[in-house]
Amino acid sequence: MITFMNNSDSEEEPCNERTSLMSAESPPVPSYQDGLQTSEAGEAQAHRKRRAGSSRSPNNTAGGERADTRVPVRESTLENEEEELTLKYGAKHVIMLFVPVTLCMIVVVATIKSVRFYTEKNGQLIYTPFSEDTPSVGQRLLNSVLNTIVMISVIIVMTVFLVLLYKYRCYKFIHGWLILSSLMLLFLFTYIYLGEVLKTYNVAMDYPTLLLVIWNFGAVGMICIHWKGPLQLQQAYLIMISALMALVFIKYLPEWSAWVILGAISIYDLMAVLCPKGPLRMLVETAQERNEPIFPALIYSSAMMWTVGMAKPDTAARGQSQQPWDAAEDGREHHRIPSHTDSQMSEMRSPVPTHPITSLEELEEEERGVKLGLGDFIFYSVLVGKAAATASGDWNTTLACFVAILIGLCLTLLLLAVFKKALPALPISITFGLIFYFSTDNLVRPFMDTLAFHQLYI
Amino acid sequence: PAFGLFLFTIARDPLRIIILIAGAFFWLVSLLLSSLIWFIAVKSSDPRDERLQKGLLIFGVMFSVLLQEAFRFLYYKLLRKAIEGLVALSEDGCSPISIQQMAYVAGVGFGLMSGAFSMINLLADALGPGTVGIHGDSQLYFLTSAFMTMVLIFLHTFWGILFFHGCEHRHWWEITAVVVMHLTVSGLSFCNPLYVGSLVPSYLLMAAAAAWAYLLSGGSAQNLRRFLLCES
């Protein structure tokens, strides 16, 4: 699954991060597994490839890590189980993704409904230079289309830039960039958000307390995201960042532009991931060639798999070799759904061998997480948030969009299980969401209003 | 109560959650189509003619009911196919979820969605200031709406079970009974604001449907007694 990166444009700085999607999450694993257990890795990979799990990318990179420990025992039964496990794990993975997406959307909708700041129009980002306050409909449409073109081209440029950087191994630059943008996100946006929420609820807070709270929040966030931290906390931070980013988008994108951009982005995602020359695909393939994890940043992982070796010494060796990749998703077998995140850095947590697993059975349970790019989170939340903000049908529309997006996500994951390679996560969900938004707002709302007026039930 | 149902019985199993959301989706699509029809009908008719509008509304409601049942049927077909796939994929040759459970979950999905759509704007408005029934309408608007919604959610659940059971065993009379019940309940709601006319029969129907579904699911008076007396 590929989720493309969105540049997060803040009005302050063009700190756009594009994270293209990463389909093959676990390229790195094979590489250093090789060092450790070459034979097993080979088997594991082969066997992983056969695994139907949705989390496998064709390159079987993900499988490598985990597989090694289990390979000897599983080899024979894997073939058969592979098919069986697909759906069994499939449902679990879907839920593992449902929950964070739902949480993110809930946060965004709750904020939009209560805090007035995010629905006021206070200007636009520099990436959408054309204003929509024009008198005629045609002019407005034209402006929104132009805005979209500008935005998409910015995104394309950023993605290509990132791919080039990655190709030429300018890792430090990329890491620095990601760190900078996550810094900004965690501190600045949180400050603004907190300020607005406190204003809405008329709660007084003095500056020292605020400073303390934000400092703690930001520092822990940085550590969690870029380094090590408990899984739940990292997931929570990623959700928070996505929600903040989505709120920024909702506030600063003019109405029609937002919808057109959503549509265009899903088309772009589709092309960037599936076309052979698409930047995201190139990114994925390059990462797979090098057997490195594709950018750990900007991806939400639903489970951490520790690639723990069978024996203790392996664990130690593995632990050390993992350090160089700060955002490495070691030992994860998931399919990834690469996405771009706008200046968000969600580094995958480096798998810290918190529990040295020495038995195959334990390792077995940990497998299979699913990865979804943060850009996907952001755009889903933007869609639902915009529905909550601007629809006159209020909650019905929001609810309809929510269900539509979840179903889209389900279908996408199903396709992922079928195709077993990186797929764009946006198009189906966004298409459903858009269809449902427009139809619910215009068609269902009058119907339901009339029904409610007469208190009729259907 | 519906939410409690959801928490206790569905939230554990991921497959059920997916079926639930898909059920809600199907209901939503049926609503969409029916409101499309109604919208077209309204737009192409005279907006000033009250009787016509009311007639159109009734037509819209009935049509929507029929569409909902049609979509329930479609959903049943989809779930049948899915079950076959699940059986093929499962380890021990039997599906991780039975068709009855699916029927239950699908019913809850439909019910939740329909209940949500009926109630949620009301709830949002209820949070704000205002007086109920200030223009001479009934003062019990919120209460009755709440009860009606609850009965409808439960009814959808039971109808789901009955419907799927009917489809499974090809008891066409069961299916028609469900459709007729649904039409009846919707029709009864036309009696509003004469609440006696709509709420009481609806509850009676719900009790009947509940008992029927219970019996169909293999329950019996004995089981019930054992359950209530906490015997082993």
From TrEMBL, chain A:
For region Disordered, the annotated ranges are 1-78, 316-352
State the oligomer form and interacting partners: Homodimer.
**What organism is listed for this UniProt entry?**
Smithornis capensis
| Protein's UniProt name | Presenilin
Q: What does this protein do?
A: Probable catalytic subunit of the gamma-secretase complex, an endoprotease complex that catalyzes the intramembrane cleavage of integral membrane proteins such as Notch receptors and APP (amyloid-beta precursor protein). Requires the other members of the gamma-secretase complex to have a protease activity. May play a role in intracellular signaling and gene expression or in linking chromatin to the nuclear membrane. May function in the cytoplasmic partitioning of proteins. Probable subunit of the gamma-secretase complex, an endoprotease complex that catalyzes the intramembrane cleavage of integral membrane proteins such as Notch receptors.
Q: Name the keywords, alphabetized.
A: Endoplasmic reticulum, Golgi apparatus, Hydrolase, Membrane, Notch signaling pathway, Protease, Transmembrane, Transmembrane helix
- In what way does this protein cross or attach to the membrane? Multi-pass membrane protein
Localization of this protein: Endoplasmic reticulum membrane; Golgi apparatus membrane
- Which gene is annotated as encoding this protein in its UniProt record? Psen2
> Which PANTHER family is this protein grouped with?
PRESENILIN, PRESENILIN-2
Q: Where are the transmembrane segments?
A: 94-112, 145-166, 173-195, 207-227, 234-250, 256-275, 399-419, 425-444
Q: Name one GO molecular function term.
A: aspartic endopeptidase activity, intramembrane cleaving
EC numbers listed for it are 3.4.23.-
Mind naming one GO cellular-component term on file for this protein? gamma-secretase complex
TrEMBL record, chain B:
One GO biological-process annotation of the entry reads:
Notch signaling pathway
Q: Name the major location.
A: membrane
Q: Where are the transmembrane segments?
A: 17-41, 56-75, 102-120, 140-164, 171-188, 194-216
Q: How does it sit in the membrane?
A: Multi-pass membrane protein
The task this protein performs is described as: Potential subunit of the gamma-secretase complex, an endoprotease complex that catalyzes the intramembrane cleavage of integral proteins such as Notch receptors.
Extract one GO cellular component term from the record.
gamma-secretase complex
Q: Give the quaternary structure.
A: Component of the gamma-secretase complex.
The record's similarity note reads: Belongs to the APH-1 family.
Keywords in UniProt for this one?
Answer: Membrane, Notch signaling pathway, Transmembrane, Transmembrane helix
Q: Which Pfam families match?
A: Aph-1
State its location(s): Membrane
Q: Which domain of life is it from?
A: Eukaryota
Q: Which InterPro entries match?
A: Aph-1
Name listed for the protein in its UniProt record: Gamma-secretase subunit APH-1
